[in-house]
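Look over what follows to help learners.
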Amino acid sequence: MTAAPARRLALPTSALVLAALLTACGGGSTSAGTPPEPAEDVAAPPSAAPTAFAESDVTFLQDMIPHHAQAVEMAQLAADRTTRPELLTFADQVIADQSREVDRMEALLETAGAEPAAHMGGMDHGGSMPGMMTAAEMTELEGLRDAEFDLAFLRMMTAHHEGAIEMAEAQQAGGANLEVTELAASIAAAQRAEIEQMAAWQDAWS
């Protein structure tokens, strides 16, 4: 009399076991008989590699450092040779700006693994770089005072700036390193503005 109930209990128990097995085997399927797609690894974006230095980048830096150094030397002469406060302020700004740019260019040369050019050990007056003053021109400027100094300084510094712009434009045309190119563009823009200011002073003081 007890066998019949035991059979009635066995049937639902078997069904529950079968359902559990099917659930365990098929869990996580996106559709019947289709296993889930493996998750794709999301790679982190590659970090920007530093831009390589072209030969023209290195040459620009090696040449512009002594070019700036001569502009600083010229500007330093103004301290005891002019009585115009605006020219003294201008000269001080040239010294500050171009000294700061020299520091940056020296750091870039170090990053490039390049040595300073041979002429950087001393002032290369009248070298091959555009706008550089000769030794005779520098001696002439040193010997002038007051109005004569003012006009000669403006004339020579304008020519010097024009040479720096020419060098900066050559780098922009053939350079590869973004930081050097940005520096060249900044130098050119600043010196164009200074040329305009010096032209206005030449007209007013002549």
Observations:
- Residues 146-174 form the longest helix (29 residues).
